[in-house]
Amino acid sequence: MNTEKDFSPLTPNIVRALNDKLYEKRKVAALEIEKLVREFVAQNNSAQIRHVIQILATEFALSQHPHSRKGGLIGLAACSIALGKDSGLYLKELIDPVLTCFNDSDSRLRYYACEALYNIVKVARGAVLPHFNVLFDGLSKLAADPDPNVKSGSELLDRLLKFYNNNGNCHYAIIHVLESVPDINLLDYLPEFLDGLFQILGDSSKEIRRICEVVLGEFLKEIKKNPSSVKFAEMANILVIHSYDLIQLTSMTWMREFIQLAGRVVLPYSSGILTAVLPCLSYDDRKKSTKEAASACNHSLMKLVTPEDDVDDEESQTKSSPQSDGSPSKKESESSTTEAPIFSDRPAVTLDLDGIVQVLDRHLHDSSTGMMTRIAVLKWLYHLYIKTPRKMFKHTDSLFPMLLKTLSDESDEVILKDLEVLAEIASSPAGQTDASGSCDNSDSKTELHIPGCKVTDLSPSTPSMNSYFYKFMINLLKRFSLERKLLEMRGAFIIRQLCLLLHAENIFHSMADILLKEEDLKFASTMVQTLNTILLTSAELFQLRNQLKDLRTQESCALFCCLYRSWCHNPVATVSLCFLTQNYRHAYDLIQKFGDLEVTVDFLMEVDKLVQLIESPIFTYLRLQLLDVEHNPYLIKALYGLLMLLPQSQAFQLLSHRLSCVPNPELMRTVEDPKAPVKDKRLAQPHIDYSELLQHFDRVQSKHLEVRHQRAGRSEHPDRKL
User: Fold this and answer.
1) CA-based angle 558:561:563, to the nearest 5?
2) Which of 180, 342, 504, 527 could make a disulfide contact with 544, Cβ separation 3.0–4.6 Å?
3) Residue 56 CB coordination number (10 Å)
4) Nearest to 484 by CA among 437, 452, 520
5) DSSP readout, 409-473?
6) What contacts 170, CB < 8 A, 6 or more positions away?
7) Cβ atoms of 424 and 387 closer than 8 Å
8) For 553-569, what is the HEC assignment?
9) Long-range CB contact pairs, 58-64, < 8 A, 24+
10) Spatial separation of the C-alpha atoms in residues 364 and 403, rounded to whole Å
11) Polar residues compositional bias: what residue ranges (predicted)?
12) What are the DSSP calls for 373-406, one per residue?
């Protein structure tokens, strides 16, 4: 540089210092320039101010000498500091030479350019917005700078330019700039300022919010037109962050479009998306639009989860590896094209299953979660167990207690969805290897030891259950025992639905086996009464009733014996089971033993209910068999036995009237001739030891009697005996 050239109003000392290789001397020169410019500002001498800036730009910042360029940059920053709020009048002259230095080959000089622009922008604040285009373009170049110091400096400058100013005028200016950018494809940079736009969307000014919505709408249109060039992954979390009241609808709308356009690209962010979406599903009609958008997001996101997500990472890499010739397989190619042709060239994404389960579990535990949100959570869990059973069973032990607790929910619809999840857990083949952390499923079958019956195998037609099934049955009965109100209000409903979801025989088989070992005899009796009522009255149990009516196979006999031994906890239920299975002689033998039992008011009420059931459509076949007195003498005797137990009541009159319709009472006499044909067809059943069953009944009733006596001894008000 020619040091003899006239640089006035800059003094020779300032010029010499600006050209010095030492930073300290250039800094001293900058302080002198700042002092000089302040004097010009005080004098309102804009001509001299522009002259100083022009000298610093052309003679220094754009000089061929590197030290001169460094001096020019620090000098321009000093001018901006001296100008203060008036720097906006000279921004173009201040910014342009600095931005030119962004392209310098010297990394130190690029860093000084960042530093200079940072100081200029810091002073000018919102006044830099009209120059947004060039600033943004310059920053985009430095963002990928190989020098870490330059990159760090650009990040500081980028944060300074972020749109967090709450000033309405500033917001308006920002929007105006974004609306009038002709020469930059802002869609490429949308991740950089989308957060700021959503901040502006929460502005207190209605007009600013309206304009911002228009701008966001235009961006969304461009995204739909050019989805392949959109950085969806970088913007997903921004939408999650801004899913609160004021801008929630816009956020949900964008999120819905992102999921539909980006497809599986958003799966790694699914836990955050669900955190934002799930609460919206319980909104009322006042936020109907937000609720509908959230519902669409939820539905679209759920569809993205496929069985491919159940494959381990190593297996996934093996499957996705190219063939030996370097080309993908035909199957992979077809799958990629079908799912998302736009993103077929992008790397495979991983489902954030752990994060999703954590979010779902948190919503289940939260007592304030709305009903529709709880239903959505349970739908998600069911979907995940269907699509990714192997990975989901790793979470089953932690989810299981809350799923059981959800059975106490106030909503029938929630309970139904909860039962679907539990049923899938109990029946999924994946549970055979993951339950209890063992691959041995030898204990997973509900195989029952049934004394009194010569077979112990389950019916071949019964679908196999995993070990969670038996665990589920045990915990369900335990919950009924601890929450008697749940058993009373929802017990029948829950058991009927499980019979539809899993298989009635499995449910009754396992519950009977568990109740056989129940120590709380009063609960066992109540539970047997509940199961017996369901068995005799529910449409869901029609097939099981038909199976028990005809004890011609070993499997049906095994089921009868299993139920019988637990039904012995409740004498009247045991008799009704014998009526259902047409074991009339055994029913008569049981009723004969009722004289030795403690007959309470509750006992007589159960007999009353049985009489009502005999008159119901369930026992139509039994009533018709009364016409064949010769072959059903023990049926008539058993019914007369019930009649003799009843006091003079409406049930007594009902049964008495029914028995009076039996033709030829004389034929009720039992034929004892050993050569005569067997009258009760059940006596010919080779698979059941009825004498052993009677002995078991006696033992169970003895236990009940002992417990009642112990209870009566501890109570001042023992049960009233009739």
Assistant:
1) 110
2) 504
3) 28
4) 520
5) -S-HHHHHHHHHHHHHHHH-TTHHHHGGG-S--TT-S-----TTBS--PPPTTSPP--HHHHHHH
6) 125, 126, 129, 163
7) no
8) CHHHHHHHHHHHHHHCC
9) 58/97, 59/1, 59/5, 59/7, 60/1, 60/18, 60/19, 61/97, 61/98, 61/100, 61/101, 62/97, 62/100, 63/1
10) 8
11) 318-327
12) HHHHHHHHHHHHHHH-HHHHTTSHHHHHHHHHHG
Distance CA 539, CA 582 (A): 20
Please state, in angstroms and rounded to a whole number, the distance separating the CA atoms of residues 515 and 523.
9
Cα–Cα dist 539/488, whole Å: 19
How many distinct helices (H) and strands (E) make up the chain?
36, 0
Encoded amino acid at 256, one letter? R
719: left (phi over 0), alpha (psi -120 to 50) or beta: beta
Burial of 430 (0-12, 13-18, 19+ CB in 10 A): buried
**Read out DSSP for 11-33?**
-HHHHHHHT-S-HHHHHHHHHHH
Specify the residue for token string 């139509």: 620
pLDDT at 433: 53
Neighbours of 519 (CB within 10 A): 8
Segment 541-594, tens digit of pLDDT: 999 999 998 888 888 999 999 999 999 999 999 999 999 999 999 999 999 999
With 0-12 / 13-18 / 19 or more C-beta atoms within 10 angstroms meaning exposed / middle / buried, residue 506 is: buried
Residues forming beta bridges with residue 453, ordered by sequence position:
688
Read out DSSP for 585-638? HHHHHHHHHGGGS--BHHHHHHHHHHHHHHTSGGGHHHHHHTT-TTT-HHHHHH
Tokens of 110: 């690029």
Which residue is associated with the tokens 């190989």?
146
- Which residue type, as a one-letter code, is found at position 117? L
Which phi and psi (to 5°) does residue 231 adopt? Answer: -90, 75
Question: What is the per-residue pLDDT across 346-374, written as a single tens digit (0 to 9) for each?
Answer: 456 788 899 999 999 999 999 899 999 99
Residues 6+ apart with CB under 8 A from 57: 72, 76, 93, 96, 97
Q: Cα dihedral sign for 318, 319, 324, 325?
A: negative
**What pLDDT shows up at residue 707?**
83
pLDDT at 418: 97
Count of C-beta atoms within a 10 Å radius of residue 196: 18
What tokens were used for 23? 């930073």
Task: Dump pLDDT digits (tens) for 437-487.
Answer: 433 333 333 333 334 444 333 333 445 678 889 999 999 999 999 999 999
- Pick the more confident residue, 712 or 249: 249
Structure tokens at 508: 């009754």
Q: How far is it, in rounded angstroms, from Cα 448 to Cα 508?
A: 12
Who's near 356: CB < 8 A, 6+ residues apart? 270, 271, 274, 380, 384
CA dist 252 and 279 (Å) reads 12
Which residue is associated with the tokens 């949900």? 252
Angle, to 10 degrees, between the axis of helix 270-277 and the axis of helix 288-304? 150
C-alpha 299/C-alpha 287 separation (Å) is 18
pTM of the model: 0.70
State whether the Cα torsion 471-475-697-570 is positive or negative: negative
